[in-house]
Design a protein that fits this description.
The complex is a heterodimer of chains A (432) and B (249). With 432 residues, chain A is of the alpha/beta class. Helices cover 21% and strands 38% of the residues of chain A. The radius of gyration of chain A is 21 Å and the shape is globular. With 249 residues, chain B is an alpha/beta fold. In chain B, strands 6-9-10-3-11-12 form a 6-stranded mixed sheet, with helices on both faces. A 4-stranded antiparallel sheet of chain B has the order 2-1-4-5. In chain B, strands 7-8 form a two-stranded antiparallel ribbon. Classes of the chains: A alpha/beta (432), B alpha/beta (249).
Chain lengths: 432, 249
């Protein structure tokens, strides 16, 4: 199956290669990515770290990207106050903020404003879990490149990616490169949406490079439509004392798979990775998150809260690897799943690999149903079973959502989650 | 207000209430006392509709209706309130959300519009002052990280805000120091009214120093074995329950 798909990837690339912008990914690199992909093969569910992903959607999709995006999108979510917004449709920049951002930050579309320094961003994609990033290398049509200077003060940027084209027309390949110079600070909101209710394929690649002492707070919201297949590969490398906070909320898509690889390369580097995933009906929500401790005194905190209703499958595979040099490492994992239906499925997998002494690693994973005593307490106060259940589900995700420090954004996500879980508006009113 | 007739209840196959009969007239405060394991908490839970309690015989009539046929939330909306012996912590559900949701559920049931948010908050704040609770508790999770005493005060706060017709307080005095006991008792006393009945389930007479009951009932081995006025509680304090256990057998 994979061979046939790869042959199709090759053909589609061959037919299109001259029209793909070399300023986004050089032709050489596209070719070598394709070669590596052919060597390694596309992911398959028989592989341990892909078993919960719905990969069948790839069989039906067209891999080649949509080259001419829809110009204007009518129905964008309201902008966040004080956050510069860039909108990408089918992976290609279509709207930038009216007001130019601060001098200390550069946000550019590599399709229209190639930056030499950006282009040289090395491809990591060494792990089997990162293979879909190679597919992004092959077909990317644009990239959002963000660079924040040391002295710039805290910057706020929002990237909105909207998938429009149906799967038979073309896939979209959102691509993001973030570089923070030493001591720089950035709050980045990355939101993935889709228009209408068409089946489409999104394959996203994000690369993050944090220099010494820099700090990135990264909010990722996956809210695509109910027929979207959403794939994602995120790789981040942290230098000494850098801090990366990743808050991901995934509610959309028919199938969503995110592969995250964080490398703590400098001593004192810290990552806090918090993910909330909601699956309903036939959705599958799958996250693979690997943190690699490569230097002393590095810290990881992984938090996952997932709810599966209907016949959904929600999976989180959280792996922490502590290499020999990473003495005095501290790692914590707290993974919790809530089963909200007899046919739903939760799969939690905390994994630890330790190659040194003198480390502190704690992990816990629990999956269960709604707490009956909590439920009864709410009923005894007059709440209907539906509202009580919704409220408890919402509270379950609060461990993740309450960490969002942009109040406007947090509130919208709370409403989004409440809406996703509600048949009526009562929970929304409660929050009002 | 409430009429319990020959009530039999089993929990996990074991009969706990064995023909309990009790009547609480409107406007009165009754205390149900008894030793450990006599069925006091079972009674409180059955009245609130908690799952896991199987009624095998008898009836409970509340304001002329069959209480046992109502779901827990319907009982609450009809004005039945249970003050929990062990109030549940619900992290992530904010206290004020719960209060508002509870009040609006009851109002909707009565065909009234939702409460005005501003007015509601000022009512809640006033009741919090009465319960000597810090306002910061409003924005915290329900009972989250509260001490035992704070949880009990929060139960009474909910009761004050909900203004039930019938309140059943299950060992509200347990785990309270004397100052907290006074605050809780004061809160309960402000709710005494001609159209409201209260049932205090307790081990000790101590609470009854501050909330004077109209009637005291002694529950032993699943039945009411003696009823009397407030002096019965004093007698129990003096003599213990042993002399009544013989009578129940």
């Amino acid at each position: 199956m994979s061979t046939a798909l790869l042959a199709r990837v090759k053909d589609e690339y061959g037919a299109l290669c001259e029209r793909l912008p070399a300023s986004v990914v050089g032709t050489e690199r596209r070719r070598s990515a394709l070669e590596r992909l052919c060597e390694q093969g596309l992911p398959a569910t028989r592989e341990e770290n892909w078993r919960y992903t719905n990969l069948r959607v790839l069989e039906r999709a067209r891999f080649a990207p949509a080259l001419t995006p829809t110009e204007a999108i009518a129905d964008l979510p309201a902008p966040l106050e004080g956050v510069a917004r860039y909108v990408f449709v089918d992976g290609i920049l279509c709207a930038s903020p009216q007001v130019a951002p601060d001098a200390g930050i550069a946000v550019s579309s590599l399709r229209t404003a190639p930056t030499a320094a950006m282009r040289e961003c090395p491809s990591v994609a060494a792990l089997p879990e990162a293979r879909l990033a190679l597919l992004n290398d092959v077909f990317a049509t644009d990239a959002a490149a963000i660079r924040v200077q040391s002295s710039a003060g805290t910057q706020r940027v929002e990237l909105v990616f909207i998938a429009c084209a149906a799967a038979q027309v073309g896939a979209s390949y959102p691509r993001v490169q973030v570089t923070l110079e030493p001591g720089a600070r950035l709050a980045l909101v990355e939101r993935h949406l889709s228009t209408g209710d068409v089946a489409n394929l999104v394959n996203c690649a994000v690369q993050i490079d944090l220099a010494e002492g820099s700090q990135l707070t990264h909010y990722r919201l996956q809210q695509t439509g109910s027929r979207t297949a959403w794939f994602d590969t995120l790789e981040a490398t942290l230098a000494k004392d850098a801090r990366y906070e990743l808050l991901a909320v995934s509610t959309g898509g028919l199938t969503a798979r995110s592969s995250v690889h964080v490398r703590l390369a400098g001593s004192g580097a810290e990552v806090a990775l918090a993910t909330a995933a909601l699956g309903d009906r036939l959705q599958s929500q799958d996250t693979f998150a690997l943190t690699e401790h490569l230097a002393p005194r590095t810290r990881t905190e992984q938090t996952f809260r997932g709810i599966a209703s209907g016949r959904a499958r929600v999976a989180f595979n959280g792996k922490v690897v502590v290499r020999e040099a990473a003495r005095a490492t501290d790692s914590r994992q707290s993974l919790r799943g809530l089963l909200a239906g007899p046919e739903a499925e939760i799969d939690l997998r905390p994994q630890l690999e330790i190659y040194t002494d003198e480390v502190r690693c704690a992990h816990g994973a629990t999956a269960g149903m709604l707490d009956e005593t909590m439920l009864f307490y709410l009923l005894s106060r007059g709440l209907s079973p539906e509202v009580a259940q919704r409220l408890l589900k919402w509270a379950f995700l609060e461990d993740v959502v309450s960490r969002i420090e942009l109040p406007d954004l947090r509130r919208r996500i709370e409403l989004e989650i409440a809406g996703q879980m509600s048949e009526g508006a009562s929970l929304k009113e409660l929050l009002g | 207000m409430l009429k319990i007739d020959n009530l039999h209840v089993t929990v996990e196959g074991k009969e706990i209430l064995k023909g309990l009969t009790l009547e609480i007239p409107t406007g009165e405060v009754h205390a149900v006392m008894g030793p450990n394991g006599s069925g006091k908490s079972t009674l409180a839970h059955v009245l609130s509709g908690r799952p896991g309690y199987q009624v095998t015989g008898g009836s409970v009539t509340y304001q002329g209706r069959d209480l046992l046929s109502l779901a827990p939330e319907e009982r609450a909306r009809e004005g039945v309130f249970l003050g929990f012996q062990y109030p549940v912590e619900i992290p992530g559900v904010n206290n004020v959300y719960l209060l508002k949701a509870a009040v609006n559920a009851a109002r909707k049931h009565r065909g009234l519009p939702e409460v005005d948010a501003f007015e509601f908050l000022s009512v809640v704040r006033e009741k919090m002052r009465l319960m000597r609770m810090d306002e910061s508790m409003l924005s915290r999770g329900v009972n989250e990280g509260f001490s035992g005493g704070e949880k009990k005060r929060n139960e009474i706060l909910q009761m004050l805000v909900l203004e039930p017709r019938l309140a059943v307080l299950d060992e509200t005095d347990s785990g309270l120091d004397i100052d907290a006991l006074k605050v809780v008792a004061h809160g309960v006393n402000t709710l005494r009214a001609a159209d409201r009945s209260l049932v205090l389930v307790t081990h000790y007479q101590r609470l009854l120093d501050y909330i004077i009951p109209d009637r005291v009932h002694v529950l032993v081995q699943g039945r009411i074995v003696r009823s009397g006025d407030k002096t019965l509680a004093l007698e129990l304090e003096r003599r213990g329950y042993d002399w009544l256990i013989g009578e129940a057998a």
